[in-house]
Amino acid sequence: MTTRRSMLGAALATTGAGLFTSAALAPLVLAAAREDDPATAPVAAAPRVTPFSVPLPVPPVLAPASTKGGVDTYRMTLRPARVEILPGVRTEVLTYNGSFPGPTIRARSGRPVVVHHTNALDVPASVHLHGASVPQTSDGDPMDTFGPGRTRTYTYPNRQPHASLWYHDHAHHSEAEHVFRGLSGSYLLTDDLEQSLPLPSGAYDIPIALRDARFDDRGALVYVMDDVPGRTTLLANGRPQPYLKVAARKYRLRLLNSSNMRFFHLRLSDGAALTQIGSDGGLLPAPYTTDALWLSPGERVDLVVDFGRYPVGAQVVLENTVGPGTPEEVGQVMRFDVVRTAADPSSVPARLRTLPPLPAPTARRSVHLRMDEDGSAGARAYIDGKVYDPDRIDISVRHGSSEIWTVTNANKLAPHNFHLHLVQFRVLTRNGAPPEGPETGLKDTVRLLPGETVELQTTFDTYRGTYVYHCHMLDHSAMGMMAQLRIR
């Protein structure tokens, strides 16, 4: 149930005024709490975790079961497991192959991947490869589920360029809780262009999935719909505020926001530069240097951080500067400990890739995102005034067309973001202004603060069929903020 408290909490997470240094906004969340709000129901506090007391794990890279015929075939089982998230505590989660988060698949453009998923859960599931161009039958549509005891085969042609993709459950009305409980993992697609660049690689190329969680005093995950303020334990690759031992050299860090609802605003504790080299759809045209960056649910950011500027023995923290939650709870994401020297042949070229010019648009459309903000029970979320209906086609486009969509967040309090299946898009404007560095590359998910408008262009020239578009704050899409697109 959406409440005024939870929407205000989400707004705090995404507005510049919501920085921890602004104490004026904190009373808004407290004043909005209600006795009948499930997000404020008494839950005994989670065991206290000492920051930087556990190492950052790196999810295992899944080995193919077969490589015959130029196709990499994998097998995964969706199953419950008990894993250590909080130190010394075993927590029941949902997993792919028992891993929290799921194992990483490393794929290559032009080489197909087939994944056989067996459902050992007691509920239906649907696996969506987020950011991928795939046939409708392998997209993981919210209604295209497979039940307990069944095996479903997904085929990924990998005809698109390199990109840091990820997979997650997408069964409608269950996707939010399933992802919260662990059903997600990385799918890293590479190609000859990316491989030709002297970027950090091998052990110096690390995927890091960021998210938040809520635990009770036994260390069990507590899921409440739209509960941003309650999810105040930050996890990196499934562990709370971990540390990573690094060498004094450059690292490539592939950050994924796998949270249901939380936005991150990230920086290094000493204010040092972050070099962004990529976003959702792969490398940017050129590196972008900044001291802080946004990451909304479902978005990816590809960074190069040079730890060679620090002496051995130095420690630097990756900080999050927005709530909800106090700085003590959500202000420190993880710590990097510089423990040794190392040779560093890597570098970041001044030009990373050339994106083709956009074709002349063939159509223009407007999309409005909105959810109820009156605090009433049973609040719902809408696209163009409608809740998701799998029997309704909301937009029909011609195959091969290139369209400009103007997407607006019509809410005054609630933030949203926007994800389109099948295609990557280019951001043309944000609130009427040209995109800045982080949004100059290919995107499949884009943030929208209250009242914001983003203009994007995409070309539908791959597969025909029916695909969804939705807010990737998954609690919102589960509440109805999703619609269907048919490419004919």
How is this structure best described in words?
The protein is mainly beta and about 500 residues long. The protein contains 6 helices and 31 strands. A 7-stranded mixed sheet has the order 11-10-9-13-18-15-16, with no helix packed on it. A 6-stranded mixed sheet has the order 22-21-24-29-26-27, with no helix packed on it. A hairpin with a 5-residue loop joins strand 1 and strand 2. Helix 1 (about 5-10) packs antiparallel against helix 2 (about 25-30). The model is unreliable at about 1-35 (pLDDT under 50).
* Rg for CA atoms: 21 Å
**What is the chains' assembly state?**
single chain
Question: First CA to last CA: what distance?
Answer: 36 Å
Record field, number of beta strands: 31
The CATH class of the largest domain, by name, is Mainly Beta
Strand content: 35-45%
* Corresponding CATH superfamily of the largest domain: Cupredoxins -  blue copper proteins
Spatial shape: globular
Number of domains: 3
Mean pLDDT: 92
Uncertain parts: 1-36
* CATH architecture label name of the largest domain: Sandwich
Strands in their spatial order, largest beta sheet:
11-10-9-13-18-15-16
What portion of residues is helical? under 10%
